Amino acid sequence: MRGLLSKLILTILVLLLAIGLLGRFYAAKPEPENTEEPVAAVTPEPEQSEEPQESPQPQESSTTEEIPAETPETNPEPAVPETPAESPQPQESAPVESIQPEPVYTEDPVFTDVNSLLIVANKTHRLPEGYAPADLINVNDVGGWGTIAPYMRAEAAYAVAEMTQAAAADGVTLMFSSAYRSESYQKQLYDGYVAQYGVERADRISSRPGYSDHQTGLALDFIEGKGADFTSDFEYSASGIWLRDNAHYYGFIMRYPKGKADITGYSYEPWHFRYVGVDTATAIYNVDVFCSFEEYFGVSGGTEYK
Ligand SMILES: [Zn+2]
Predict the structure, then answer these.
(1) 224 C-alpha to center of ligand 1: Å?
(2) Does the predicted model carry a pTM greater than 0.85?
(3) CA 121 – ligand 1 centroid, Å
(4) How is 22-39 classified by DSSP, letter by letter?
(5) Which residue, among 143, 145, 114, has the nearest Cα to 130 in the 3D structure?
(6) Which helix (H) or strand (E) is 290 found in, with range?
(7) How far is the CA of 105 from the centre of ligand 1 (A)?
(8) Do 156 and 168 meet the contact criterion of CB atoms below 8 Å apart?
(9) List 269, 294, 295, 304, catalytic entry
(10) CATH architecture of the domain with residue range 109-297
């Protein structure tokens, strides 16, 4: 009985051992299954990762195809507007800064060159201190008729002589009082007007020394000696009418036209003419018989001294 019982126990133990081993085996088997599952789950991941990779690849290829097409378009668009937008901004701000001084400093040098026939003398353009033209000649020596100060720059003097002969041919006698006036002489005149009329009126009818058109040696005042001299009525005189209609043919302009005192700085002076050359004088006359030099050239003027 003992032997049989011990055999039975041994058999049970062996069975238990076998069951335990089997249990371990089955318990271990799902583990690899689990690992397989994650592996299987991992594989779809790479598939998904491949798909997105593949899809991005075609997308990239499509986008890269589009991008090169877009980038040239979109890049230029933002790049072009950016650079113009950026460069214009500094350019705009720079021009604005440079434009402001331009009206003051970038005026054509011809208007401040004393050797130019377009030299400007007005209340915003002062001639160089003590300036006197180097080529002054006596107009009476070449065929003009000046009574007080008959000196002018040579080219203007000859033009006056030619104009005087042409007027005489039309039955008009051209005569003038003063042409060139030195700065010191102008000072005497101006100071006399100030003493007589005060500064305000003196500035309307006369120039301060250094600002006079007469100091250029290119201007002169015509007279007739019949009572209309140095008044607006001179425009109705034979000389006034002839000069208004013909002076430009000889290179002269009416320097202080009617209705332009705010621009030229001086009242209407139908007797004061200024030599600028035939081409310029004709061009100004053709704009309007009362077109001013300042208007024609856009040169600053006005009634206030600067
Ligand atoms: Zn004058």
Answers:
(1) 14
(2) no
(3) 12
(4) HHHHHHHTHHHHHHHHHH
(5) 114
(6) none
(7) 28
(8) no
(9) 269
(10) 2-Layer Sandwich (3.30)
Distance 279 CA to ligand 1 centre (A): 22
For residues 146 and 156, is the Cβ–Cβ distance under 8 A?
no
Q: What is the amino acid identity at position 215? A: Q
Tell me if residue 125 falls in helix, strand or coil: strand
Tell me how far CA of residue 207 lies from CA of 25, 141, 222, 261, in angstroms.
Answer: 126, 28, 17, 13
pLDDT digits (tens, 9 = 90+) for 50-83: 333 433 343 433 333 334 333 334 344 444 334 3
pLDDT per residue over 154-212, tens digit each? 999 999 999 999 999 999 999 999 999 999 999 999 999 999 999 999 988 889 999 99
User: What is the pLDDT, as a whole number, of residue 69?
Assistant: 38
DSSP 3-state assignment of 303?
A: coil
User: What is residue 68's predicted lDDT score, i.e. its pLDDT?
Assistant: 39
**Which residue(s) pair with 305 in the sheet?**
none
SS3 label, residue 87: coil
- For residue 106, the CA-to-ligand 1 centroid distance in Å is 28
Measured CA to CA, the distance from residue 82 to residue 250 in angstroms comes to 57
R_g (Cα) of the chain, nearest Å: 51
Dihedral angle sign, alpha carbons of residues 279, 288, 107, 305: positive
Gap between the terminal Cα atoms of the chain: 146
Give the number of other Cβ atoms within 10 Å of residue 152's Cβ.
31
Is 269 tagged catalytic?
A: yes
| Beta-sheet pairing, 146-149 with 175-178 | parallel
CA 186 to CA 213: how far, in whole Å? 10
